[in-house]
Amino acid sequence: MTTGARRRMGVEERREQLIAVALDLFSHRSPEDVSIDEIAEAAGISRPLVYHYFPGKQQLYEAALRRAAEELTTRFVEPHEGPLGARLLRVMERYFDFVEEHGRGFSALMRGGPAAGSSRTSAMIDGVRQAAFEQILAHLDIAQPAPRLELVVRSWISLAETTALLWLDGQRIPRAELERQLVHDFAALAAVSAAYDERMAEVVRRILADEPADGMFAELVERLAVRCGPLRFASADF
Predict the structure, then answer these.
(1) Distance between CA atoms of 12 and 185, rounded to whole angstroms?
(2) How far is residue 207's CA from residue 187's CA, in Å, rounded to a whole number?
(3) pLDDT tens across 159-172, in order?
(4) Bridge-partner residues for 237, per DSSP?
(5) Most buried pick, 5, 122, 222, 235, via CB within 10 A?
C-alpha cells in the first residue's frame, strides 16, 4: 500500500495557514482560551513549529486580527449604483455576515482583546473605521466633508459597531431588523443635522431626490406613521 506524502509548505504559505486557523479559533472562543497547542493541532503541525513562524501567541493573535480587519474593511465596498438606502442596506447585510461568522473575533477586534491598548491593535481598529468613513463619503460623492457631515458619518459608523457588539450578546433583536434600522438611523442622523445646517440640508435633499417611493428612507416615514400616527404637540399638529 502506498501513502501520499504530505506536501511541504513554503514559509508564507504556512504563515497564511496559521493565521487562518487562528482566526477561525478566535472567531468561536475568546483568544485567552485558545492555546498554542490547539492552534498547532488544528494546523497539523507541532507546537515548536508554530513558534518558528510566530514568536508567541500575541504575535499570531495580532496577525489574525489584522486579517479580520482587512476582511471587515471589504464589507463596506459597494458599487455606486442605485439609491443610497439600498446600498447601505447591502453594506449592513455584509457587515452582519462578518459579525455572525466571526462573533468572538469581531468582538476581540473592536474591543481590543488581550492586545487592548496596544498601538498596533488601535491602528487596526482605526483603519477599519477610516475605511468605512471614506466609503460612505464616496457614496455621497463628497471628498471634503463639512464638520456636521463628518460628525454624522462617524457617529453612524460607531453606532453600527456598538449595535453589532450588543447584538452578539444574546441576539435578542432579529438581525434583519437591525440591518434595516441602522440604515434608517443614518437617515435620522442626517435629517437632525440638516435641521441645523444648510449644507447638510443640501446633502439630504440630494439623497432623497434619488430615493424611490418604495425605498429604504420612504419606509422609515411609513413605519413612523404606523407606529406613532400624526405627530402632535401641545399647540400644533404635524
Answers:
(1) 43
(2) 9
(3) 999 999 999 888 89
(4) 232
(5) 122
Query: Could you identify the residue written with the cell 494546523?
Result: 43
pTM for the full predicted model: 0.82
Give me 94's grid cell. Answer: 455584509
Contact 204, 191 (CB under 8 A): yes
Three-class DSSP category at 108: helix
**Grid cell listed for 93:** 447585510
pLDDT tens digits, one per residue of 74-126:
999 999 999 999 999 999 999 999 998 888 777 777 765 554 446 777 788 88
Considering all CA atoms of the chain, what is the largest pairwise distance in Å, rounded to the nearest integer? Answer: 91
Beta carbons within 10 angstroms of residue 210's beta carbon: 12
Helices (H) and strands (E) in the chain, counts: 11, 0
For the chain, the C-alpha Rg in angstroms (whole number) is 22
